[in-house]
Write a structure and sequence with these properties.
single chain
């Protein structure tokens, strides 16, 4: 994943990062996963669990409800 603060916030430690201005860094990460397929599987599971925990409809709806309650309370 392109190494930006936004992507790190979303993907956390589930992703491998590369620098867009350095194509070799992407190639190195792809080679790492090719050489270690178990790591790719583990990172995929971590990504799934992270998405379910942080970005499920229930979680996001609860956050918005709390935000709107704070705004309404002044």
């Amino acid at each position: 994943m392109h190494d930006t603060p936004e992507n790190r916030e979303v993907a956390g430690d589930a992703a491998l990062y590369f620098r867009a201005e350095e194509p070799a860094s992407l190639a190195a990460q792809l080679e790492r996963l090719r050489a270690h397929p178990q790591e790719a599987t583990e990172r995929g599971l971590r990504a799934k669990l992270r998405a379910e925990a942080l970005f499920s409809w229930e979680t996001i709806a609860a956050r918005y409800a709390a935000l709107l309650a704070r705004v309404a309370a002044g």
